[in-house]
Amino acid sequence: MAARILNGNQIREEIYIDLRQEIAKLRAAGIIPGLAAILVGDNAASKVYVTSKIQACETLGLNSFLITPPNTITTKELQAIVKDLNGRNEVDAILVQLPLPKQVDAKEILDTVDPTKDVDGFHPLNVGKLVAGRPNLVVCTPLGIMVAAQAEYPFTAFEAGVVDYLLKPIAATRFAESLHRARQHCRANPVSLREPASRPEVPVTEAPREASSSAPQLLVGERERRFYVLKPEKIDYIESHGNYVKFHTGNTEYICRDSVKRLAPALAHSGFLRIERSLVINTHAIHYVQRMGRGTYAFTLVSGACLHSGAAYREDILRVLPLAQVPGARASH
Question: How many domains are there within the chain?
């Protein structure tokens, strides 16, 4: 495939058109937004970056304030500057240019910035909101990459030369987008559990309905960085996997941020049975059951998977499964 050049200047001008309209409305109301940029030291790349931001403010008719403390500044002294900017009404956005000198604790400085003025999106509160799927102020570099590339060009951390402040926000943003599309998909395309499915999995392009905690109609699993909407009846069994669970459908596995403890009762009405602390099986996927002794059983599924139950779950197994399906069930009563 031939290489394509992403025209950043053209994209910038298109964004400027919208911004000028918004800024004009604010100015008409007597409000002129202001950006305060803190540049410590004489890092050449940082100077270019901050200068471009100040020039952009002038181009758009925004106020800008450039603060250039000496390279010898301490963490407490820089915190005092940031706190002063937090309290100034004419300052709506604060940008602390990184890297900072070695003697300055960058995390302490970023934590000091008012989250509502944190235009870089580095404050823990803003990062947490992004990860939770409720983004407020988002890190501009990954957002700019995603806008420019329109999420069409995959890249790896090595190709992008990624660091913490770039890779994590991109991953969180892409996850939030995928989850949003999944929810939209199921709201627009409600699926009944009784409806026959022609495909065991549906790649998420638009998204899942928020399922009822008592009987979820759909589950969302991830495989190879893609999200899939799965019908419970297509899942053979579910097992714990650290802070996640694995959905097994035939020879395919999906992961989901959930727990067996929560899923087991929620899926009971769909024919699922908890046979071990970390295992829930779909009773419709059972091929045969073998009694192993001491109240335990070996379940062979249609897919060929063989799972063993725990003795603590013997009564649940005998109560749910037909007696004819469980060897020795009658003799146990």
Answer: 3
